[in-house]
Amino acid sequence: MEKSIDEINIRIRDGNARVVTAEEMPDIVAELGEEAALREVDVVTTGTFGAMCSSGAFFNFGHADPPIRMERVWLNDVEAYAGIAAVDAYLGATQQSTTQGDRYGGAHVIEDLISGRSVELRAISRGTDCYPLRTVTTNLLLEDLNTATMLNPRNAYQCYNAAANSTDRVLHTYMGTLLPNCGNVSYSGAGALSPLANDPTYHVIGSGVPIFLGGAQGMVVGEGTQSSPATGFATLMTTGDLTHMSPDYIRAATFQGYGVTMYVGLGIPLPVTDLTVVRSTAVRDEDLTTGVVDYGVPSRDRPTLRRVTYAELKSGRIELNGEEVRTSSLSSYRKARQVAEALKGWVEMGSIALSLPTRRVEASRRTRPMRETKLVPRVREVMEAKVVCITEDEPITEAALKLLRGETNHLPILDGDRRLVGIVTTYDVTKAVARPGERLCVRDIMTRKVVRTTPEEAVDIAAQKLERHNISALPVVDPQNHVIGMLTAINLGKLLGGRWKA
Questions:
Q1: Could you say which of 67, 75, 237, 496 is the most buried, measured as most Cβ atoms within 10 Å of its Cβ?
Q2: What's the CATH number where 460 sits?
């Protein structure tokens, strides 16, 4: 048995359609079976509400008198991209204020406009014969704009990695604050309520499909940027009219140490046309998995610590490395439910008509890494390979001699297996020598918590370590924690001075 989209739309028009949310569908299928569920249910609504950084809006401001070709544009001191047309601009949600930094950004401007608040437009131009005006400043409401169209390059993530942090310091990321030593796990997404989780083969989701976007009716433009359907990480490009949106479903936010983002409420009504839709919308949180990824590793390909289900994540605790770790969601399941319920109401009232994709999502597509023609230099290329070391049992007088002879200010400390266990500096030894009455050895004055690097680490990351810890050198260690080099601020200074060539 199959149902056409026309049959479903006729039922919606006549008020006879059975509409359920994705949260309700699994129990219906379990109770009735797939064939009966196909006959019974016409539409399944989905919803999600989370941070979607890759969002923004196009604006047309209308012409001033005399006219101006805006070459640079600011809205409440947040710069928008003006390289489109004379009085058009695109404002990205994550763009930060030139005066307030990450406390205010493009997402806040969009929320202010939707909320009915006035926004200051400021623009400059070099002036031309047909556009003689060089500056303009005015205050605008959303209703004053000719066009205010939200166009989000990457929304409705099919899946999102959960995040943990194996380092010994707090990390501030787009996945929120991650506590050291895997002290918490942060995740995002509505699980079984999420749109693409209910159509993983993109059977009824694609270009032209109507959606709920920010409280307004919108549309799927097509695949989102960085969409990787073949690996289960698809995204959608979406659009909708800003003038019909609500601050209940569009909210600006700032993540400490990361910057501005925008929370977007998004839902897609799925027409139940065949058994493929029935089976995919019967998904539960127990069926959906994601990886807990170690954000403590500063690499594109971060290691996955384990696979988890959304049911485990939503329980509030998971087991990680033999310990129970708290989980927390960056997205709101309560708001996702509201999106799905609001969308259900629209369909039941007949205020939204369903359609099948005018262009299908390419299910085999997968993202590729950046092609880098000039590689970032690695620590091994600039480090000092000849390193003077000392053992922890030696007297500090020997450390002083080595510091003098080795023309270095840092001595890595090795244990009996020649592994790094500490470090002393000229300053440490100077303080110890100033106490001649005490017979001290190296272990008594060394710093045991050593900030280190590896030969394959990018020098940018190593430089951040030096800056963050206010130190001037890093021991370079191999996988067995043997010291194979030393990276100093002097080495990095030579690099920045242009001595390293790509």
A1: 75
A2: 3.10.580.10
